């Protein structure tokens, strides 16, 4: 096993950036926007490895924690290799989904 995955890493310029979420779209009064993928990385959140995209939208940089639906959509569009996603632009829409018995806003790759 390669333990370097768990050791300290060089800081990524996006690690200190805010997270992309529905609030960003609501603040901009946007229902959809083109999002540019700069990088994909794995980050440990609450003891679970998560895929995080470093993206640009609305002229700002964000980290975007990916869920299964959006990850699978990206795989369908651009393949399984995250290196191939760099520089790609995807249309992201503000939508509704059911979560724990409630109707909530979510971001979906179109």
Describe the overall structure:
A 5-stranded antiparallel sheet has the order 3-2-1-4-5. It is of the alpha+beta class. The chain has a single domain (21-109), classed as Beta Barrel (OB fold (Dihydrolipoamide Acetyltransferase, E2P)), CATH 2.40.50. Helices cover 15% and strands 45% of the residues. Mean pLDDT is 88; it is low at 1-9. It is globular and about 35 Å long.
Instruction: Name the structural class.
Output: alpha+beta
- Characterize the main sheet: 5 strands, antiparallel
> How many DSSP H or I helices?
2
Specify the CATH class: Mainly Beta
Strand proportion? 35-45%
- Tell me the domain tally: 1
Supply the CATH architecture: Beta Barrel
Order of helices and strands, N to C? HEEEHEE
Overall, the morphology is globular
Please report the distance between the alpha carbons of the first and last residues: 37 Å
How many β-strand stretches?
5
Helix content: 10-25%
Mean pLDDT: 88
Low-confidence parts, pLDDT < 50 over ≥5 residues? 1-9
CATH topology: OB fold (Dihydrolipoamide Acetyltransferase, E2P)
Rg, Å, rounded? 15 Å
List keywords for this structure.
110 residues; OB fold (Dihydrolipoamide Acetyltransferase, E2P); 2 helices; globular; alpha+beta; disordered N terminus; single chain; 5 strands
Spell out the blueprint of helices and strands.
Elements: H1 22-27, E1 32-45, E2 48-57, E3 60-65, H2 68-78, E4 89-99, E5 102-109
Antiparallel strand pairs: 1-2, 1-4, 2-3, 4-5
Quick overview of this protein structure:
With 110 residues, the protein is an alpha+beta fold. The protein has helices at 22-27, 68-78, and strands spanning 32-45, 48-57, 60-65, 89-99, 102-109.
């Amino acid at each position: 096993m390669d333990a370097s995955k768990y050791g300290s890493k060089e800081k990524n310029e996006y690690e200190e950036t805010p997270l992309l979420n529905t609030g960003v779209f609501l603040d901009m009064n946007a229902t959809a926007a083109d999002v540019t993928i700069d990088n994909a990385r794995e980050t440990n959140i609450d003891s679970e490895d998560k895929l995080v995209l470093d993206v640009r939208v609305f002229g700002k940089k964000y980290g975007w924690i990916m869920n299964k639906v959006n990850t699978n959509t990206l795989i369908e569009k651009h393949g399984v290799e995250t290196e191939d996603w760099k520089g790609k632009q995807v249309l992201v829409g503000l939508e509704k989904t059911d979560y724990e018995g409630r109707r909530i806003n979510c971001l979906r790759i179109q």
